[in-house]
Amino acid sequence: MSERILSVLVEDKPGVLARVASTISRRGFNINSLSVGPTHIEGRSKMTIVTELDAVEQVKKQLNKLVNVIKIVELDPDMTIETEVLLLKVSINKDSQTSVIEKASLSGANSVDVGQDYAVFELTGSSKELNKFEDLMKPFGIIEMVRGGRIAIQTNL
Amino acid sequence: MYMAATKHNYLITNASEIPQVLKEAKYIATSGRPGPVLIDIPKDILNQKSDWVEPGQLDLPGYKPTLEPNPKMIQQAANLIKNSNKPILYVGGGIIHSKANQELFDLATKFNIPVVTTLMGRGAFPDGHELCLEMPGMHGNYTATTSIQKSDLLIAIGVRFDDRVTANPSFFAQNAKVIHADIDPAEIGKVREAQVPIVGDAKSVILGLINALGDTKLNTENWINELNSMKTEFPLSYNQNENGPLKVPFVLEELQSLTEEEAIVVSGVGQHQMWISQHWNFTEPNTWLNSGGLGTMGYSLPAAIGAKTAYPEKLVLALDGDGCFQMTCQELITASTENIPVKIVVFNNGNHGMVRQWQKIFYNSKFSASELGHVVPDYVKLAESMGAVGLRMTKKTEVKNVFSEMLKINDRPVLIDCVVDPEDMVFPMVPAGGSNDQIILNEEDLKNL
User: Fold this and answer.
1) What is the ipTM metric for this complex?
2) Digit-coded pLDDT (tens) for B16-29
3) Is there a single domain that holds both residue A90 and residue A67?
4) Which residue of A has its CA nearest to B24?
């Protein structure tokens, strides 16, 4: 099974996220990533759902039945720009400080907060780049890591 | 919590929203593929004061049911029909919701196409008509089930290829092409691939087909003859002994012979439901109410009260099983206090009959939690205690008289405790997951399982 990306335009109303998530999950499908946010149109939100489905057509039909779902587009991975955001808090000490900052900077991460014994970095990129950055930081001791959902947009044909 | 069981639901966060939400909810519940809409009004909102806000235009950008079928699809469907020698109209509840029974009648009779009516579609096409094959499937009659297996074209309208119709889908109508028309696009192609998928309202689809077929003459005479001889060879049957315990099919036929008008029949779930669907003669839509695929035991009495309230001049019969009746029997109090004179027949076999049947056939008669006991409750006393008339029948000679007595009483609810044979089983039967080519016609056939 390969990953499928659904871009779902919905009405910005309470409960929509729960409806969409439950429609997918009650059919036993896992959601790898889900993000939701406003669009340029007032009252409309866009959900980007990354999931591994072999029955994607049936799920699209079921999602379309939800009253608050306006439009569903399955994105073609070859014509899709995808990005994700990460915040990572890593421990530092006198010995590791320089190395951590250098590696982060080479990875393109911004340092957003530095304390006595920790630093917080922010990185935006593909899931692969974010995974790589996590691996780089692991030896220094990751205190906490948060990743936002993946968002995607289709390029012009 | 209600999400999975409703078509849509609302949570009111301000009392002023209520008028608009009610307007939307009614529209959503009754349009497209109808379904329940739940409006959740929390306690704090109930205490709120608000000015009346006149509901505005409906603004439902994500809800636009497709009613008019695509003409190209209609043309493709008509082409398939023209080339078919063994077509079957496989129709269900969608016809009744769409009020398309007259159009269906025109389509079937003009082009001589036999019709099977599913559990939810009983009454969409009149029983007794030569083209009517009645119910197919797990407990369908031999001819209806077999007609689909032998068909070369299924014209499926307002149906969803439910497993009670198809049994194992891999063995279902293997030689047939499929035209599948439904108002709900999610049903099309879900179970069976359709050569011609049509999204639309049943009535518009049928009118489109009639128009596209024009003066076409279908050559279905041999096909109809084949089906007619099947009907003669494999009729539905039951065996009512003169002095033996009552059989539900016999009781049903007696009851129908005594009712002159078209009654509204409401059932629960299980053996009695299947027997009614098999043996009752349905000639009008909306005369058969049951919960279909939801399998809601306890549906009969409350739904009958609803039907009688909507149609006070009609004869409304709640024909229920004892297991089902026990689930909502307290509503008899509602019927009595609100003066809603429904007539209830409890087919009392002291068992969850269908569960017992499966335990008998598939679990070596290991009866587990399916026995209810013949003695308690005493349904006659129960009826009387709740303000209804209670009657009882136990043998063949009593049936006519007791029913006549019931039909005379119109000022109160009446309940008949109809004591029937607990060993009786519903046939024909196709076991779940089996093939519709292998129909168990009677108890004898069980030995070959």
Assistant:
1) 0.81
2) 999 999 999 999 99
3) no
4) A67
On chain B, the residues whose CB falls within 8 A of the CB of A58 are 186, 190
In B, minimum Cα distance to A64 occurs at B62
Of B4, B28, B186, the CB nearest to A67: B28
Would strands A118-125 and A80-91 be described as parallel, antiparallel, or unpaired? antiparallel
Identity (one letter) of the amino acid at A43?
G
Least CB–CB distance from A22: residue in B3, B184, B186: B3
Question: DSSP string of B299-318?
Answer: -HHHHHHHHHHH-TTS-EEE
| B4, B60, B185 ranked by CB distance to A61: nearest | B185
Query: Rounded to an integer, what distance in angstroms lies between the CA atom of residue B274 and that of residue B265?
Result: 13
Residues of B with CB under 8 A from a CB of A: 3-4, 7-9, 11, 13, 28, 60-63, 184-186, 189-190
What is the nearest CA distance from A61 to chain B, expressed in angstroms? 5
Domain-ending residue, one of B48, B64, B80: B64
CA distance A53 to A2: 7
A43 with A108, same domain?
Answer: no
Contacts of B194 in chain A (CB under 8 A): none
Same domain, B140 and B212: yes
User: Which residues from B are below 8 Å from A62, CB to CB?
Assistant: 186
Sign of CA dihedral B90, B94, B96, B98: negative
SS3 B130: coil
Quote the domain boundaries for residue B278: 248-419
Number of inter-chain CB pairs under 8 A, A vs B:
35
Alpha carbon distances (Å) from B83 to B105, B177, B219, B395: 21, 11, 9, 53
Check whether residue B31 and residue B124 sit in a common domain. Answer: no
How crowded is residue B377: how many other Cβ atoms within 10 Å of its Cβ? Answer: 17
For residues A39 and A96, membership in a common domain is answered with no
Q: Where residue A91 sits, what CATH number does that domain have?
A: 3.30.70.1150
Which residue, A141, A152, A121, A132, is CA-closest to A32? Answer: A152
pLDDT computed for residue B4 by the predictor: 78
Instruction: List the beta bridge partners of residue B91.
Output: B117, B157
pLDDT tens, B366-407?
A: 999 999 976 789 999 999 999 999 999 999 999 999 999 999
Note whether residue B428 is domain-resident.
no
Distance CA B115, CA B100 (A): 14
| Cβ-based contacts of B190 with chain A (< 8 Å) | 58, 61
Structural domain tally of chain A? Answer: 2
- CA-nearest residue to B33 within chain A is A65
| Nearest chain A residue to B61, by CA | A70
Domain ranges, residue A121: 81-154
CA distance readout (Å), A38 to A23, A35, A41, B60: 21, 11, 8, 18
Same domain, B172 and B296: no
Q: Which residues of A touch B13 (CB under 8 A)?
A: 14
Q: Do B3 and A65 touch (CB under 8 A)?
A: no
Quote the minimal CA–CA distance from B97 to chain A in Å. 18
pLDDT tens digits for B26-71? 999 999 999 999 999 999 999 999 999 999 999 999 999 999 999 9
